[in-house]
Design brief:
Layout: H1 6-22, E1 24-26, E2 32-34, E3 38-42, E4 45-48, H2 49-63, H3 71-95, H4 101-114, H5 119-128, H6 133-153, H7 162-170, H8 172-177, E5 181-190, H9 197-215, H10 220-227, E6 238-243, E7 267-269, E8 272-282, E9 288-299, H11 307-322, H12 327-334, E10 346-350, H13 357-365, E11 375-377, E12 380-393, H14 395-426, E13 429-431
Antiparallel strand pairs: 1-2, 3-4, 3-13, 5-6, 5-8, 7-8, 9-10, 9-12, 11-12
Helix pairs in contact: 2-3, 3-6, 7-14
Length: 435
Amino acid sequence: MITKPMAQITKWGQWLLMASTLTLAYSANAKVQTVDKVMAIVDDEIIMQSELSDRVSMLKKQSKGMRLPPDEVLNSQVLERLIIESIQMQMAERSGLRISDQQLNQTIANIAKQNGMTLAQFKRALEKDGVAYAMAREQIRRERILSEIQRYRVGSKIQISEQDIDGFLNSSRGKSATAEEYRLGHILIQVPGQANRDQLKKAQAKAKDLVSKLRKGADFEQTAISHSEGRNALKGGDLGWRKEAELPSLFSNVVPTLKKGGVSDPIRSASGFHIIKVTDKRGGATKMVQQTRARHILIQESEIRDAKQAKQLIDDLYKRAKKGEDFAALAQEYSDDPGSKLSGGDLNWINDGDMVPAFEKTMKATKKGQISKPFKSQFGWHILQVTDYRNKDMGEELQRNQARQILYSRQFEEELPIWLRQIRSDAYVEIKNAK
């Protein structure tokens, strides 16, 4: 345990006196009732009984029938977790790390989406579990801050070299983790176990007819529901995502030859004729991506420019650009985007999803050579010009990025517990008598 200077001890004494004053209630006959009490002192902060009780209560509500340890053990485990969190939160505070309401709202929206819910449904689910939305919201904010300080302090020390990536990609685990995956649709035209020649011809003819219709645009899911006799027929024939090594041997030579959206010829087996469609692909060493090249001008509010003036300026620049003034020159003179200003507003090649929604929506609605009308994003007012399009094979780059992320995650999980133990041993922690 680290000893603190006397001035610090005095500060804790003041806090304890204040906490004691606030948590005592006097009745008419001067009896004292304890409402709250200090459970631990952690550097410059204290952890109260109410905080521990709230966290234990939330944990029990979220356990949903899972077997938890006895209360004494659970309280001790949760208190230790709160101590570790407090140390990290104080580090974040000193570093000036904040999570804005806008960032928090987006995080909560993403959590709801990942669970297949709207925000309103997510709130109702919390209420059903007995968790107040305001409490959950602040806990999510806290977890975001903890995640960021861990990434900053631990993640920044992790270095993944190109040689590391090459070695991983050449390993059996790397090849498996980054292999191409296929989402498959399946239709089975079944034949009896002792089918005669006429029955086989009839089933094959039906399968060929369905393939022809599917290749002409017939809906695969509806066709599967109407005609397939496979186990997944009522799911529209969806077999889910399969890596090449996981494909049934019957399909292993056919699926890799199909493009996204491709439909196979009928494949004969003992059970009948199978039709396979590759509804989607991901991963692997080949992935063609459409990219857009665009440039923009960003005008933001500032100490010398209010909202009305910012809108007036972007409107004026739009008119000047439409009249033929050089877009790049206007960007160099007026744009508030330091990253693209010197290059005339050029944003280089942009993949789908790279830009914020307002920007991407406008960019996709703007034809090559055109200049968009002024629009607003979270960063300010923009006008943009689309200068070119191209298709680029991003497969190898995406594969290497995937490998880098796998290696980073592995090292992070190894280094994080070591770092947490270190900051715990370096901190001043005094656990109060719980009785």
